[in-house]
Amino acid sequence: MMAFLFMVVAAGADDLLINSNDGFPRSNPDRSGFEDRIFDEAFRRLGHTWELIRVPSERALASFNRGEIGGDYVRMAGLEKTYPNLVQVGEPFSSMDFGACTLSGKLRFSSWEGLRNRPIAMIIRWKIVEERTRDFTCVTADFTTKAER
Q1: Which residue from 15, 82, 83, 127 could staple onto 65, CB 3.0 to 4.6 Å apart?
Q2: What angle do CA 19, 99, 2 make, to 5 degrees?
Q3: In the predicted structure, residue 7 carries a pLDDT above the cut 70
Q4: Residue pair 67/85 in contact by the 8 Å Cβ criterion
């Protein structure tokens, strides 16, 4: 994602709209999160500015794909198959770990596949979770607020 942003900036954009759905400590409305600070420093070095916006994930990806916003940060690899205008950098600047909780302490697994054939609840609109559990039996949960949708 950062390479695409640099290409846009190099083409003459002064102020880019950049979306983040992440919260503390990754991104904050006042741009004090550690990912925000990476963007601040990168654009400072390039002599450009950027504005942080917060729109829901799916809307941000569609807007980015149409060229309405300049970027969106922290995305999983492979989204360019669905959003062909999304350009990903080969070097990550952040990563996330995922975990699962159970009412029974007896379940043990070390991969997404360990959840197969088990009823699971998951947060919808998280692309990586949707992708990794695509053909699983799932009970979904929408934890977003109306303002975030």
Answers
A1: 83
A2: 30
A3: no
A4: yes
